[in-house]
Structures are given as C-alpha cells and as structure tokens.
Amino acid sequence: MINRFIKGKESFLAFRYLDYRRFIFSKFMLTLALQIQFVVISWQVYQLTHDYLSLGLLGLSEAIPAVSLALYGGYISDRNDRRKIVLTVMLLQFVCSIALVFISLHYTRNPGIVVTVFPYYVIMFFVGLLRGFYSPAQFPLMTQLVPREAYANSSAWNSTFWHIAVVVGSSIGGLLLAFLGANMVYILVVSILLIGVIQVYRIPPQPPQPVKAGESMRDSIKQGLSFVFNNQMIFGAMLLDLIAVLFGGATAMLPVFASEVLHVGETGFGVLRAAPFVGSVFMALYMTKHPPLKNSGKILLACVTGFSLCMISFALSKNFYLSFAILVLSGAFDNVSVIIRSMIIQFFTPDEMRGRVSSVSTMFISSSNEIGAFESGFAAKLLGLVQSVVLGGGVAILSVAGAYAWLPKLRKLDLEKEMNK
Description:
The structure is a single chain. With 421 residues, this protein is mainly α. The chain has a single domain, classed as MFS general substrate transporter like domains (Growth Hormone, Chain: A, Up-down Bundle), CATH 1.20.1250.20. The protein contains 18 helices and no strands. The protein has helices spanning 2-6, 18-49, 52-77, 82-109, 118-144, 151-180, 182-201, 217-229, 232-248, 254-261, 265-289, 296-316, 320-348, 354-366, 368-383, 385-406, 408-411, 415-419. The radius of gyration is 21 Å and the shape is globular. 56% of the residues are buried. The model has no long low-confidence stretch (mean pLDDT 85).
C-alpha cells in the first residue's frame, strides 16, 4: 500500500526504500522519547534549583561525553556494521530511561528524603556517552539505505521527522508532566523507545566498507579530521552552525523566559519550546519537494543571519504571541541550514569516511546545543538574561560576515550542479 502511494511522487522518493522507512521511524521514536524526557528533566531541575546555571550544567553534562567520544565513535562507525551500533546504543538508552523510572518512583514513594538533582545529571551524562556513538553511525547508516539520487530527499525527510518528533515531544512533554506526573511520563518514554528498538532490529545488517590494512586508530581519526578541515564547504557549514547555536541560541533559557519574563507557566513553556520546531517542520515539508539546491551557499549564509536576528528579537519581546511567532520563524531559518549542511556532507564525503566526518559534525553541531546551553546559562548569570541573548546573536551575525568574506567556496556553492554529476 505504501509503495503504491509513493510511486511516481518525487517528494516521497526516499520512502520507496523499505529499510529507509524503518530507519526514519526508529529515529522518530528515539527523538520523541528523548525530547519528552529532557523536557521533564529540565523542568524538574529548574524547579529544584531556581538557578539559570543549573540548566546550562544539565546540557553540559550531556555534551562533554558526547564530544569526548565522538571521534572514537566515528572510527568505530567506519569499521563496523552501523546498524548494529545504532541498535546497541538504542538498547542502552532504553536501560537509562528505565533507570529514570526507578529514580522517580523512589523519590515519590519516599517523600521524607532529600531530593537532589545529581541523578538527573548522571543520566544525562550517560545519554551523552551513548550519543558519542549514535551520532557518527546514524547519518552514515541512513545514507547507506538510499541511492545517490535520493540524498536530498532523504535529508529533507530526515529533518522533517526529527523536527516533528521534537515538536510533539516539546509540546506534550510539559502537558504530560502537568496532567500525568513525572512517573507516568518516564514510563511512557520507555514504551516509545522499545518501539524504536524493534524498527532498527528489522533493518538487515549493513557490512562496512573495506579499510586500509594496518592503519592505526590515530591515523584513521587524523585522516578524518584532515578531510573535514581541508574541505572549505563542509568545515564552513559546520563552523557557522556551531557559532550560531553556541552564541545565538536562546532555547536553553526558555524555562526562565516562560516563568519570569512571559509568565506563562508549564503549558506556555511547552508551547514556546515547540515553536522553533513548528517552523522547522513546515519548512522541511516544503523542501521535500523544493530542496535548496541552487545557490545553496548564499541561502545558507542568509538563513544563519535570519536565525540570529530572530534570537535577538525574541530576547527583546515581552509578548507571548510575538515571542511564539519569532521562534517559529527562527525554526524555519534553522531548518534550511540543517538540510543544506546534511546534503553537503552526503555529496562530498566518501562512504568509507562518513562515520569520521559525522563524528566531527557531532563535535561541531550536535553538541553545540548543550555547550550553548551552558554558555547561555553562564552568560545570563554574568550579564543578565536579555543582554546575554542579544550579545550572542550579534556574535553569530559577525560570524556570517566572516564566512562571506573568507570562505568563497562555501559562498559560491551550488548543490544543483553536484546533484547532476
């Protein structure tokens, strides 16, 4: 039935491949579960501490192990069955979520004990360890499951499903917490993860590419780093996103904006957290049929600038509805840059090196959110909430000007020409 529906529809090109459908559904379930879980954890941590920096430390506790293990994770990805790596990581994530259930039940059943945030930081640390292996394996695995002509479409749908999962997770995370309580929410997360594990299990093994005989791990990792840093387009796209999210993002401070600036409580917090991803979903759906292939470099620079301006505007807004609209627009800008960066990596990276390149992407991009969360918390404590976000947005805009001047290959990039090679 699915094959009949998508036959002849170019916007559903990637879905013609069964294993891609299994992969994208498993990633959707994993993202949904972790998003719900993080919303509940971040709210609980802030309610226990009422400290801006505690939210930043929560992100940092995940980012440090993810960054530390990323290069090794990329090395492992290029030498092993990536499907097996993803399956193992998801099973261990399942165990971490079960641990959260027991922690929450323990606190609930023993109201007289002192409640501490330490277990939440420990869980986030282990989630970061697992992500150090998952991120370098999942994107190359996706690329293995589709032919070259489906790269752009697979990237667009990959982004679409990821953002839908974040939208739904962000939206219902706060609502579920308000109506069901933390215990039931954590149990729901465990159930969702189990469904995702089953889908990955159904994907056939994916044998790795042959590797050079006698090549040491150090030489292999060094080769991957050299490839990224010598490719102006890959390096430039990663660096731009790193700076924009590290300095220009304000999402880590959303609990504070929701509680102390906009005064909208748990439900409003969930809505604001979902807002960027609402814009991302609509933009990603548009790009499944109209991928940003022509003048890709200039579009990327323009969208990073737009995202940064949105963050500055959000920081200055005192109206909930205006803030929501700004965050929606920021998500649309961000999604374009995400898809362009994904296509750059797909088109310009040989298969035997995709794991190592993805590991560098993990260090630059995936962890920029968590390290950015720490930076946001620290800057807000030092400079003030609004001032820190405005200053960060200004730094991000300056980075775009620098990229335009000093990265001509990125500025002139046209992926339409690469698609037709």
